[in-house]
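[09:14] KT: can someone run the structure on this one? pasting the chain below
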Amino acid sequence: GPFPPPAGPAVRERGTGAGGPLPSGPTDPALLEQALAELERMVGLEPVKRQVKALSAQLNMARLRAGQGLPVQPPKRHFVFSGPSGTGKTTVARILGRVFYALGLLGGDHLVEAQRADLVGEYLGQTAVKANELIDSAIGGVLFVDEAYSLSNSGYGKGDAYGDEALQVLLKRAEDNRDHLVVILAGYPEGMDRLLAANPGLSSRFTSRVDFPSYRPGELTEIGKVLAAENGDQWDEEALDELGSIAAHVVDQGWIDELGNGRFLRTLYEKSCAYRDLRLSGYPGTLTRDDLATLRLPDLMQAYGEVLSGRGPQDPSAL
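[09:31] RB: done, structure tokens below
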């Protein structure tokens, strides 16, 4: 049935050009440029950048064609983001939302992140209500469903009625509200393949797939440098060399996806800072600006030891 209009100014929808396939909201070229510049600054992800830039150009030209009375395809608004965790899927989802907003195709640029528990109820009949409420909150923006394959556990004996119900609601709303909502289903590649194979209704609608690669060693080192620089820190030469060796090692060992890619670097950086602060607090002299902002080899080595020891009981299977 008809859904009540979402409340509040955050999700106010712009005019959707009654019969036309393209909403005709005002555009913001500066915002578009900003969003694409932020994408460009992300480390690595070359294939992802190419795809998002191509999509952005396509959406923009469709808008100009429509303005000249030429026929256009309705814009794609349903995406599958597949890739290991920590490869920038959520960040790119936000940027994509800003691209749609800047081109007048979305009323806002907010992103609602959801997982199975946010969509699925605990008892019969609760799921549809819960899923619809969540989707209402995303109207005018982006709904980003992470680990989307957890909605489809049909492999477990009697199936998964609640997950299936959530998927049906999601499909229906993605269709009904397609001018006001971008839906992104995200997760690791094998899980997404399984989800799409098991749900023809999904795979026929979610035809745009963006594949996020694991980071390569040089990219991981670069992420480590960027994280430090963003926070006014720097690695000294020895630490930077070691960071490169660590990155090469975890990639060679096949550990990087389990360690969470970019997330691994953030943890390594944060723990290195903690060990540096500990080291400096035992320092008798006056600390210079350089002392306070420099991460050294012992800081990194201790941090790395701690991260690896925290890998816990699942360790042997990862080797």
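[09:33] KT: thanks! The longest strand covers residues 182-187.
[09:34] RB: yep, looked fine to me
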